[in-house]
Specification:
It comes from Nymphaea colorata. By secondary structure, the chain is an alpha+beta fold. It has 12 helices and 26 strands. α3 packs across α4, α5 crosses α12 and α10 packs parallel to α11.
Length: 524
């Protein structure tokens, strides 16, 4: 099936089956752009449907292959690129780990072993990213790469549903800063898409859980009591945890926690374990090194997968100019080299339980989603922390987030369902504390993390100098006590302060966090 052609706007510009929606029935599509895979879903009038590409895939690789002609992604090509072609230097992937980050970020530095060019000057600017095309490095940006496969996803939906697509609900990790969120919105704009709503990934999963509990209540009179679920979502790039309380189709997020840690960290740990001098070996980015790195990456990934069902496996890797790597790899070794990853996951679960003010005994269901949630060590750790023996069975671990985004897209678009399947509401929570800079470099939280959205908080402030007539208020989000450890959101001036000695006058303002991506401050 031919795909409709689109042009990706530059970063500086402003910008199937015989199914058909009328103009009055156009739900926003749900998009889940993962670190390693992406997917798109839509409410089709009776249920959520995940769309398939020409290769009949619902989960598509998140990469862009560059050539001397136009670049293409892993979504629409009729014939798939093989693994070694993707790892040849021509493809750029894992950009969800790079978007919105500067070249001083440790996550960027850990990405330098990817089989394409990631260079840094360590001065706080955007890293240089490039693909190898005919022996020449072709520069790109994370936003451009994201936009290319967003264009392909958009075209795929429009061909199958025979209508224009503009509005989307996009899932994002809990740990994404506001700047990272804006870069995702920028990529959508470059692809001609409007982000109707950004949705933390576990919040999207919570909406699917709420719908299922509502349907169970309708089929079982008297089962409408509140149910509490812990949602653990770990993919290739990020780990998110949420505690949600659900009753009657209403899902209230009690607590959120998240970190930039995922399957790629596990893979990197394995690669560095096999080749301790990995950074120096790959620093030249020569053709032979790129090829060897591709072989090592594939072999390490296969070994990790094998250890999910076996206690040991064999490695046999062509390292190019180096001696061939042949060795065994055991589950004990795997768990030892990834102990810090597992401990971080454990701390996120404990933090979420603590912030929700709930005990493990209060958790009715444990929902495990994301590919890494199926790793035996992680799976048993989460279940043990919640004192459960088995996870919730009703949600597909790889399709949950995009399905929740599609549900939210239908609800946000005003779509109704005669059977009540869209009578849903998500009460979200703030993923970060919102506050200001005080006393030089200190951070003063105003709206605390995990506050229910919309949140409102009044603040009283006074002058620091005699006859001060205006004040500069610098706003941050984060949990660090010093502003350098938090994300700068912006600043504004408060003027018209009457002349007086310092500390005598008091002024009040109200801070309001209206939804996931919008807050404001109003004088009172």
């Amino acid at each position: 099936m031919s795909q409709q052609a689109y042009t990706v706007a530059s970063d500086s510009e402003t910008t199937g089956d015989d199914r058909h929606f009328s103009a009055a029935f156009e739900p926003a599509i749900g998009l889940d752009i993962g670190t390693s895979r992406c997917s798109v879903a839509v409410w089709d009038g009776a249920r959520v449907e995940l769309l398939r590409n020409p290769r009949n895939q619902k989960m598509m690789r998140s990469y862009v292959m560059f050539s001397h002609e136009s670049p293409s992604g892993g979504v629409s090509d009729e014939f798939a690129h093989d693994e070694q072609e993707i790892l040849s230097g021509r493809a750029v992937f894992n950009v969800k780990r790079l978007v919105g980050r500067t070249d001083t970020d440790p996550v960027v530095h850990s990405s330098k072993t990817l089989p394409f060019l990631v260079q840094t000057m360590d001065i706080g600017v955007r890293p240089f990213i490039a693909a190898l095309v005919n022996g020449v490095w072709r520069s790109t940006t994370p936003e451009e790469v994201l936009a290319i496969f967003l264009v392909e996803l958009r075209a795929m939906v429009e061909v199958q549903f025979k209508r224009d697509v503009r509005n989307v609900v996009l899932t994002v990790p809990v740990s994404f800063s506001r700047f990272q969120q804006t870069r995702m919105e920028r990529a959508c704009a470059m692809a001609g898409l409007h982000v109707l709503r950004l949705m933390p990934e576990p919040t999207a999963v919570a909406l699917i859980y709420a719908q299922q509990q509502q349907q169970a209540m309708q089929g079982n009179v008297g089962s409408g009591s509140e149910k509490v679920a812990l949602i653990f979502n770990m993919g290739a790039g990020y780990c998110d945890v949420a505690v949600t309380a659900t009753a009657g189709g209403v899902s209230q997020i009690k607590a959120l926690s998240g970190a930039t840690i995922g399957g790629d960290d596990i893979l990197q740990n394995a690669m560095r374990y096999f080749v301790p001098d990995l950074d120096s070996f790959y620093s030249g980015h020569g053709i032979d090194e790129i090829k060897a790195m591709g072989f090592l990456r594939v072999a390490s990934q296969n070994a990790i997968h094998a250890l999910s069902s076996h206690t040991s496996t064999m490695m046999d890797v062509d390292m190019g100019k180096r001696p061939r790597l042949t060795r065994s790899f055991t589950r004990d070794e795997f768990e030892a080299i990834n102990r810090e990853v597992f401990e971080k996951c454990e701390s996120l679960v404990k933090q979420c339980l603590h912030d929700s003010k709930l005990l493990p005994e209060d958790i009715n269901d444990v929902v495990l989603v994301g590919g890494c949630s199926q790793i035996p060590t992680i799976r048993s750790m989460v279940l043990n922390l919640c004192k459960h023996t088995s996870p919730y069975k009703g949600i597909h671990p790889l399709e949950a987030a995009v399905s929740g985004a599609a549900l939210e897209g239908a609800v946000a678009s005003g779509i109704t369902d005669p059977f009540g399947n869209l009578d849903l509401l998500t009460i979200q929570a703030t993923p970060f504390s919102l506050g200001i800079q005080v006393d030089g470099t200190n951070f003063e939280p105003i709206v605390q993390r995990n506050a229910t959205i919309p949140a409102r908080k009044e603040m009283i402030f006074t002058t620091m100098h005699d006859n001060q007539t205006q004040a500069l208020v610098i706003v941050y989000e984060g949990e660090a006590k010093q502003v350098e450890g938090n994300h700068l959101l912006g600043f504004f001036k408060v003027g018209g302060i009457p002349l007086a000695q310092k500390g005598l006058l008091e002024s009040a303002c109200a801070w309001m966090w209206m939804h996931q991506t919008y807050c404001e401050c109003l004088p009172e």
